[in-house]
Design goal:
Cyclophilin, 2 domains, eight-stranded antiparallel β-sheet, disordered C terminus, globular, about 30% strand, Creatine Kinase, Chain A, domain 2, Peptidyl-prolyl cis-trans isomerase-like 3, alpha+beta
Amino acid sequence: MTLADMCIEPGKPWEYCPREVFRKVVKILKDEFDLVVNVGFEIEFYLLKSVIRNGKEEWFPIDKTSYCSTQAFEVASSIFEDIITYLETLNITVEQVHAETGKGQYEVVLGYTEASTAIISLIYAREVIKSVARQHGMMATFVPKYAEDEDGSGSHVHISLSRNGENVFMASGDSKYGMSKIGESFMAGVFNHLPAILAFTATHPLSAFWLQNFLALCSSDYYDGTIFHRNIKGFMIQGGDPTGTGKGGTSIWGKKLNDEIRESLKHNARGILSMANSGPNTNGSQFFITYAKQPHLNGLYTIFGKVIHGFEVLDLMEKVCSPLCHLECESYLSFSSSLCALVILGSYSARLIKQIDIEFTAVHSVFSIYFAL
């Protein structure tokens, strides 16, 4: 295996060579700001075994255990012993290994180090994991959605900046956002360039389509000052209309979007996130979150996410049962194959900040909504 630069002639890198562009950015940070980028990766993947059925080869998860189950390693312990041994031979630190939420899904957490080293370690680690799986007669897959009815796999990126070995993201106790000015500026840059980042973090066409619309509306302040104009106990809460009437709102392309109805996605639980519409193929900027199962909505509304954490906040929202909160998009917290958006909701009363985490359905993409109730 060879990692190489893309050059137009010996010793002269092509201006769009990814490695060269990365080196330039790292050099600018060091020369102009005396900052070093440190990165840590969490690698999620499925381990599949081959089964011959009716003369055809099919692939199935190697186990059916739950998140962080020790039983998940009864069939995989020898695989991970080899993975860790080979990675240590390559001087790649493994901080943690555990079973993930999907059937046959695992996560390997790599050590935190300088960005250029971390990226190379990520490439080698993926190759090692795939190779060891093959040696054991299995297949390791890193695809974002191995199956529509299984949890997605991410490649979570943890990023920080340091100066003289000290993390510069940390702030004093009186900081408004719990982050230093340098940290705020860095995250503002991530927020500003999010549309371009999506090309790398959400490459699935459907994922990019809905993510681009929703997150671009957030980043453009389109939702700022809007309210959740419908809040019906036992049904759903709806927002995203700048007119506050339930009749306004458009997509980032200035037109209505066609439905993306998928048979495998159902309004079968509390916390399903869908696009609101006024009829077939009339999606714009409005969205809703269900308070309970709503099977009569299946096939009529495009589902593009679900609540995975923060259901207690949804409980508080449901108790109000009236038009609720002003919506303001402040910034984005972090990104990887999962995207994390910070959205502040300011209410008319108390100022208690709460959080709901949403996972997008097309790929493993997560954003966080912070509610002030």
